[in-house]
Amino acid sequence: MQRSALFLLLLMLSWCVMTITHEMGHIIVGWAGGGTLTKVDLAPWRLPFSIFSPDPHPLCTLWGGPILGVAMPLFVAAIAQRNWTWLIAFFCLLANGVYLAASWISADQFLDTTKLLEHGAHPATIAAYCTATIGPGYWGLRRACIHYFTNDT
Fold first, then answer.
1. Taking a C-beta distance cutoff of 8 angstroms, is the pair 36, 51 a contact?
2. CA–CA separation, 64 vs 21, rounded Å?
3. pLDDT digits over 11-22, tens only?
4. Does the predicted model carry a pTM greater than 0.85?
5. I want to staple 69 with a disulfide (CB 3.0 to 4.6 A). Which of 22, 45, 136, 149 is the partner?
């Protein structure tokens, strides 16, 4: 019972890490590209967002979220070398890929994929990102979950 409760907390932490690193990716790249951040909300219990005005390089800013949103957790997991950090990192990998795929299907004007396409991203780059993240993210998360429930560490 205690392991299951801790696992639920770990999943909640994974969600928070995913939403914050994804949005921080937009913010870091937006600032690096000379954008002016005018509004931001990082609360993980609703969809976080950041608005730049002006944003001289919107395509770079938009790609910053999904790219740094997986790179930062994977970097931390590679350094920490703990199963629970890999679980979080693979959750982020899977969630970022699923987010871009789902927002592509929904075509919601406020979600990243629609904005990526509006600003000139080729659909093949989005498909490649989804392919590169969803499969490895699923298998890595699955392996980390099995390890979590079958080992004493």
1. no
2. 10
3. 999 999 999 999
4. yes
5. 22
